[in-house]
């Protein structure tokens, strides 16, 4: 079974009114773009991507709460990162 198939078993309880990750969406400096490209490649859920106009597309709904993007951001690009509150967030169903 592939990693993608295993990830497909996870269930997400999304807090629509309170994003647990808030990111800068545009007007990136060169340094921020370098960081952002690392995050795009590293996010195991593939939640980050750049639009053709250079703005960032990001949806926290499928977040695995691994913290990789927070570490790579080094205090830039990501404006706020916290675990989902209460009963919200990912429920791992395959390991
Ligand atoms: Fe992706 Fe992990 Fe960051 Fe969630 S915490 S957005 S899964 S890198």
Summarize the structure.
With 95 residues, the chain is an alpha+beta fold. Helices cover 25% and strands 20% of the residues. The relative contact order is 0.31.
What does this 3D model show about the protein?
The protein is α+β, with helices and mostly antiparallel strands and 95 residues long. The protein has three helices and six strands; from the N terminus they run H-E-E-H-E-E-H-E-E. The strands form three sheets. A two-stranded antiparallel ribbon has the order 1-6. The two termini are 13 Å apart. The mean pLDDT is 95. Iron/sulfur cluster binds at residues 21, 43-45, 47, 63-69.
Write the layout of secondary structure elements.
Layout: H1 3-7, E1 11-13, E2 21-23, H2 30-42, E3 48-50, E4 56-58, H3 68-73, E5 78-81, E6 89-91
Antiparallel strand pairs: 1-6, 2-5, 3-4
The chain binds iron/sulfur cluster.
Family: To ferredoxins from P.putida and C.tartarivorum, ferredoxin I from A.vinelandii, ferredoxin II from D.desulfuricans.
Function: Could be a 3Fe-4S cluster-containing protein.
Protein name: Ferredoxin-like protein
Overall geometric form: globular
| Major sheet attributes | 2 strands, antiparallel
Kindly state the number of beta strands.
6
Low-confidence runs of at least 5 consecutive residues: none
Strand-pairing-aware structural class? alpha+beta
Fraction of helical residues: 25-40%
Please indicate the percent range of residues in DSSP E strands (runs of 2 or more). Answer: 15-25%
Number of helices: 3
Radius of gyration equals: 14 Å
Mean pLDDT: 95
Q: Strand sequence of the main sheet, in spatial order?
A: 1-6
The SSE order reads HEEHEEHEE
Bound molecules: iron/sulfur cluster
Measured between the Cα atoms of the first and last residue, the distance is 13 Å
Function: Could be a 3Fe-4S cluster-containing protein.
Family: To ferredoxins from P.putida and C.tartarivorum, ferredoxin I from A.vinelandii, ferredoxin II from D.desulfuricans.
Protein name: Ferredoxin-like protein
Domain ETF-QO/FixX C-terminal: 15-91
